[in-house]
Design a protein that fits this description.
single chain, 15 strands, alpha/beta, Purple Acid Phosphatase, chain A, domain 2
Length: about 325
Amino acid sequence: MHQGYDLIGDIHGCGLTLIDLLEQMGYTKQNGVYQHPKRKVVFLGDIVDRGPNIRLACHIVRDMVEAGHADIVMGNHEYNVVTYLSEAPAGMRQPYLRPHTPRNNFIVEQTLEQFANYPQEFNDMLDWFVTLPLFLDYEHFRVVHACWDKAMIDEYQRRYGTNTLNRSLLPESVQTDSFLYQFLDRILRGTSLKLPGGRSMTAKDGMVRQFFRTKFWEGEPERYNDVIFQPDPLPEDLQHALLSPEEKDQLLFYGPDEKPLFIGHYWMQGLPEPIVPNIACLDYSAVKYGRLAAYRMDTETKLQKGKFTWVRVEKKER
């Protein structure tokens, strides 16, 4: 009998909404674990940070994974909180692998607060985060948090012989000139281009950035607007600017003949639907605008709009 899969996007601490979504898809709690007689969940990472029920979400997800009723890939937020709390080895200029800047402090604030009275449980959860697969390649679909880069994934497997991290790799993973840093940046955060001429742009959240996120499925892009993939628009004078040959070389292309791919990460809005026939983003900004989304995958090779399902996130969970 064929195993069906239900892929669930970024939860960000919306634990009550996760229960609603699982129940809506026919999962019931048996012996303390949500399960389905014929289907299995695949979580796309980013369970932690921002929402009010982070501990609840972590326990639901981990219990399902450990009981064999779910799989999961690591999100950038799991990686971030692990490195934020990992002491840097002697010789590094900072006390922790991820600097405790005001912005980084703000991102993990809810997670630290909600686990504050459960230190042993939290350490145990952090150890589990380190072991999460970075990518999963099933017979008929693929899963990664932000971007599937085949060349980099092949190189990672050649070097490390696995699809996971371990604690001994964490110091190297924050060295910006290392392959490991570049690999994690690509699969956990996606592809980007630098704005030309040292320009920067201010996002809606006040962050000043010199890079913008790019599509990795655009076959023959000509202009900046053809490849931008983020909620914030480019400066007006750049929207129709031509991409240089060097910029085109930096872009990645996940072709239409590749297996269906599921990603999270990108703060989509509106009604869930495929980005292109073989790529779906399932991050519909649960904690911000309000949908926790899933896709009910069977054996199809082209993704179908009617197979998305979601629950609106109530204000109390935002």
